[in-house]
Design a protein that fits this description.
Layout lengths: L3 H7 L10 H11 L1 H4 L12 E8 L2 E10 L2 H6 L11 E15 L8 E6 L5 E8 L7 E14 L2 H5 L6 E3 L6
Parallel strand pairs: 2-3
Antiparallel strand pairs: 1-2, 1-7, 3-6, 4-5, 4-6
């Protein structure tokens, strides 16, 4: 909330009479919500999704994924989102195999990070990553992509290193 000394630079002094301040603040909050308190950036709207499947000993599991193909999309990822449907995920396309480091800064959803080689095989899974953490989560080897799923999904479905991910990205 803005201190009275700041409000006095915004509002006429006649409105700052003690009996009018609460009404004035309510009106200001409705008219300009960002003025009274800091807001976090709004999450990006969900992008169009594409089908993806993970195939392994645990069976075939289908997901609808948003694909981040540019630097801006990869940098934003799932930041500021508060939820994700159980059958959804986000696939980060790094365009060529390289060692990848991820983090969870400004990401509120705990995630499983699935690091995928260019042939579509899973290199490693980082389960249940900590929301809002700046701890680095490394691929451990060059990968073409990272699939982010809700935390616990990989274990629940029996996903393992060596399983295959089916998506057009891995047919290049």
């Amino acid at each position: 909330m803005l201190p009275v000394r700041v409000l006095s630079t915004i509002l006429p002094k006649s409105l700052l009479a003690p009996f009018r301040v609460p009404a004035c603040l309510a009106a200001l909050a409705l008219a300009a919500p960002g003025v009274l308190h800091a807001q976090e950036p709004a999450p990006a709207a969900q992008s169009a999704t594409e089908p993806l499947a993970v195939v392994g000993k645990g069976g075939r599991h289908a997901f609808n994924v948003e694909v981040m193909r540019d630097d801006a999309g990869r940098a934003r990822g799932l930041m500021y989102r508060r939820s994700m449907a159980p059958d959804h995920g986000m696939l980060f396309d790094f365009e060529r195999p390289l060692p990848v480091n991820m983090w969870m800064k400004n990401t509120y959803i705990p995630l499983d990070m699935v690091f995928i080689r260019s042939d579509g095989s899973i290199a490693r899974i980082a389960p249940d990553t900590e929301p809002l953490s700046t701890r680095i989560v490394s691929s451990g080897e060059p990968v073409l992509a990272v699939l982010e799923l809700n935390a616990g999904t990989a274990a629940k479905l029996g996903m393992r290193a060596g399983d295959r991910v089916e998506h057009p990205m891995f047919r290049r």
